Amino acid sequence: MNKLKTIAKASAGLLIVLGTVSSCKSEKKKEEKTEVVKEMAIPASLKWSERLALTLMKRHPESFQIDDRDTPKWDYVHGLVLFSIEKLYEKTNDEKYYNYIKGYADATIEEDGTVPTYKFEKYNIDMVVAGNILFNLYDRTKDEKYLKVLQLIRKQLAEQPRTPQGGFWHKQIYPNQMWLDGLYMGEPFYAHYTTKFENGEKLNDVAKQFELIQQHARDKKTGLLYHGWDASKKMDWADKKTGTSPNFWSRSLGWYAMALVDVLDYFPKDHPKQKELVGYLNQLAEALVKQQDTSGLWYQVTDMGDKEGNYLEASGTAMFAYSLAKGVNKGYLPEKYKEVALKAFDGMTRDLVKVNEEGEVVITQACAVAGLGGNPYRDGSFEYYVNERKKDNDPKATGPFILAALELNK
User: Fold this and answer.
1) Which Pfam families does this chain map to (predicted)?
2) Distance between CA 1 and CA 217 in Å, rounded?
């Protein structure tokens, strides 16, 4: 009997020890899990540019996954976001940003320099913009595949169909149409390439694209530019006298503003077209300030803020904030526009940006997509623009937000 009691006591003691060990292990696992969460959390002490970039990299570990893709695709949204991350890399010298950019190029470009998802024959000017990330990659690596793609994109621009006046068509399927979007998609690359490889001999042609838009798409009353211009005046959305689309869309104006400040990087001050482009930027800045809401934001349909259904939109606002801030920083715009940009950025972080428990930054109220014509048909009406779907952290908002944050040192 005494032996049984001794065994029972020993067993109980062993259970207590095992329970204690198990409890310790459980606590240790909790601590480890907490540490992992802490490591994954994005510190609020970082600047907005890094906080958003790290959010995107966390949610899209492979850069081709930007815009929620599961297979690599050569596309303008990747080009836009990765261009912004390239600018962040230039500021921080953090190699993880460079590697993220290079990862996209290597996922979409074969070793022989072919790009399986890029369809040359479509003459889609949207496909030019992703080429912007290849200049630095080629300079750093001297990998010929990057140069081949740069040359291929330049070949597209050389053969791109044009309006009778000399303006690039937006796409093969949109004959004789210039959209404001297209100025950003094509011209910064064109200006960079001709400056780097052709002694700038095509800068006049770059400037011509802006001249045509100013001549045909600018509204003299407001100073704003219409989303599209059909040189043939045949499209149902086109005004039969002017060829313009019916409304002002903030993101298209944002594309145009970004195009201006980015192409000016490649125009020497003594170039005969430089002052002309700076003049266009100043005209646009003046027009935009008149449409800015008291919150600092801009509406989806730029000049109809009081119309039911319109909403304060993130991508256009971020693009304006970037363009105005860079315009001031580069000396193209008066200093007063820095305050306009700051008001816009602060309005975004106050009203349109959410930060979750892990420190991830989420931009809301971003229009996912909008265009003209096509199937189903897009008529450019107020109702069309305000009813297009919205998407949180849409790349057309995240890329410009990072760029604006960098220019404003936020």
Assistant:
1) Glyco_hydro_88
2) 103
Domain count, the chain: 1
C-beta of residue 92 within 8 angstroms of C-beta of residue 410: no
Does 352 map to a domain? yes
Active site residue 181: yes
In a 13 Å sphere around the CA of 120, the CA atoms on its Cβ side amount to 14
Of residues 75, 126, 181, 303, which has the active-site annotation? 181
Model-level pTM?
Answer: 0.90
CATH of the domain at 294: 1.50.10.10
Please indicate, yes or no, if residue 39 is contained in any of the structural domains.
Answer: no
Token readout for 173 is 């399927």
The two beta strands, 298-299 and 353-355, are unpaired
Closest residue by Cα to residue 273 from 335, 375, 203, 216: 203
Q: What is the pLDDT of residues 161-219, one digit of tens each?
A: 999 999 999 999 999 999 999 999 999 999 999 999 999 999 999 999 999 999 999 99
Longest alpha-carbon distance in the chain: 111
Task: Name the β-bridge partners of 378.
Answer: 373
- The rounded distance, in Å, linking the Cα atoms of 115 and 131 is 11
**pLDDT tens for residues 130-148?**
999 999 999 999 999 999 9
Domain extent for 227: 44-407
SS3 19: helix
pLDDT at 38 exceeding the cut of 70: no
